[in-house]
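Quick question about two entries, pasted in order.
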Amino acid sequence: MKTDKTTVMMMIGRLSPNPLNFYKSTDEDKLGMAESVREHGVVNPIIIKPDKDKLDNYIIISGHLRHIGSVMAGLTEVPCIIEEYETEEEELNALLIGNEYRTKTKFEIASEMNARKRIWAKGQGERSDLYSPEGERPLSTRARLALRFKMAEAQVGKYEHIFDTRPSLYKYIDSGNMSIDGANNLLRFLDTQAISEPNDVRMQEAVVELRAPKQLEKVRQNKLVLEEVFFHVVKGLANMNKPKTRQESQPSNDEKELAKKVVKPEKTNTPAPDEESDEKDEDNKESEEAPETENHKEPEEEDARTFVCTTARCECYGMTLRIMEEEDENINEEDSQE
């Protein structure tokens, strides 16, 4: 790569966007950059390279948003630095470095993964020894991507699968209508059903026809919108192939296998002792072992009562007598007769 660090003023009309650039800016970003350029001008020069197909024209390497903001601000010239690259991979690497710290969409992340694989395959860009200490086996490309983008290797595989199979799904992912997992499961479903329609509308009709044929009839009657029905179906497909979470109360498969090997004791009808029954038994033992007291009554005397004779002519006058309840009526009759 040859670089002329000298900053030159370049006519905006001589600059063209890079066809390798897959980064996109929102309208809000463009308006913000235009306002910044009007107030402060272009602070950082735009990196450009000579256009081999157009004489005296240049292709932007880094600074696409600054270029758009300058056009919106009404500038005619912008500061630039001219660089030359020997290979396309070297140019692509410079493009990635220029957008290192920007906020990226899911499509831009997938595109950057694909670009880095291409760069690493040519032995350019980041050194592979940064990912594997000396003496250890170098990491695979997917493992390097996982470290680079701070995600699991399985998630990197999903990004790659969608990008390589049907990159148009990323517009639904970035719009929030579909997740990475949902798109990945959708592609698996399309493979099982042998659906390979390149037209997204036809693909949507095919999926809805298989999963919700009655809804497709309403779509054809203009009662429903195809995309809305399709996204509703895809949300159901997003739950496919996901492992079910085991509740804490449910044993795992390993626990079930272990339980089969353990010999269980035979069940008996004897109820398990509890604390209350133990307390009752102790109370009963104490009552049985307790000595008889003066207040203790014999079973046959439970129905007896005492009274003092008040009949003056009676021989037992003034004496305390004990009689049974059933004899009480006879005594009362005698008293009344006397």
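Here is the second entry:
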Amino acid sequence: MRVVMIGTGYVGLVSGVCFAEFGHTVTCVDKDEEKISRLKAGVMPIYEPGLESLVERNVAQGRLCFESEASRVVAEADAVFIAVGTPSRRGDGHADLSYVYAAAEEVAGLVRDFTVIVTKSTVPVGTGDEIEAIVRRACPTADVSVVSNPEFLREGSAIEDFKRPDRVVVGVADERARALMAELYRPLNLNETPIMFTDRRTSELIKYAANAFLAMKVTFINEMADLCEKVGADVQQVAKGIGLDKRIGPKFLHAGPGYGGSCFPKDTLALMRTAADAGAPLQLVEATVRVNETRKRSMADRIAAAMGGDIAGRTVGILGLTFKPNTDDMRDAPALDIVPALVALGARVQAFDPEGHEARQLLRDVTFAEGPYEAVEGADALVLLTEWDQFRALDLDRVKAAMRRPVVVDLRNVYRPEELRQRGFDYTSIGRP
């Protein structure tokens, strides 16, 4: 099938490349000509394990190409995916749909034969209806069907998630569009992947509901971690104990400094605003957002307490800045709250992240090190903020020798407390006695 992907951000690029890997002919379109030039040269705009080699293979085999003009390819497409950004709108938290609507209007004037317009971007309930109205106004004779097909990709494992998903959700009312979407995802039949066909509004809400529920799980275990610290329990054992219950499951029960990233923060806010406008406020989601924001801001005080209280003039070495490992995404990363707070308390911060290059533009008064051992050189405390694999087996003797004081604040519970204490570290973690 012939597929056009409008937008080469995280969702659009990964989805387009994976569709090409399925055997479809895919053109990824982006108005950013510089980004398209880099993609044509094999330079990825994001870090995602396995993406570069996948792009190279599918371009070489003629199934994948990149264009800056949609007009060259939309007319021949069977399906046009809209995968542009939907950031939080300034001032009210609603999803900014201006890029989605602009893409829909442009596509409407370019389609020729029957075409399915698929919303891949995360959008509030009713957006598909508005896209359909835009298309009808722009080109009343266009033979199109508007479909919702939300993504459920985890940064750092997005390719595997696309190829072997838990489910595929498709919101569709037109039988022709349903048949086309079934054919598009037919390669997943080999994995017996559930493909759920539903109405468009339900499909749109499923995405938001899923992210809000996962955000609540993260926030719940973080609050349980605080309780564990007060009563002398171990949050990791609590998480394991409740996660073995099949009704709960073990995923997203890892205590830490709070959630961040491209999805949970903006999607919980957008869902809150949608619910409030509909007269059905979501108090659990509202509490989740409030508790998570408070938690991220409180982490600097936790670090200071582990260092004895007054950290003015002291050096803090931070390992990891991205919101999670195996990504270069800094959006709403806990580091963006924690590091400035440490600086405000008078600390000198030196940090290292394998892929968090954007942090250099986002964080001020920070010394960026070339590696983990350089980041802890002369430090009064080491803070493990993002659990990259290369931080899981550090040479602890080398770390201790490099530091001025052997204080470790492990905000991801990577290390065993007894091991660090036996090696002479003053060790603090999350929710463990």
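Reply: The chain has two domains: 2-198, 234-433. The longest helix spans residues 200-231. Hope that helps.
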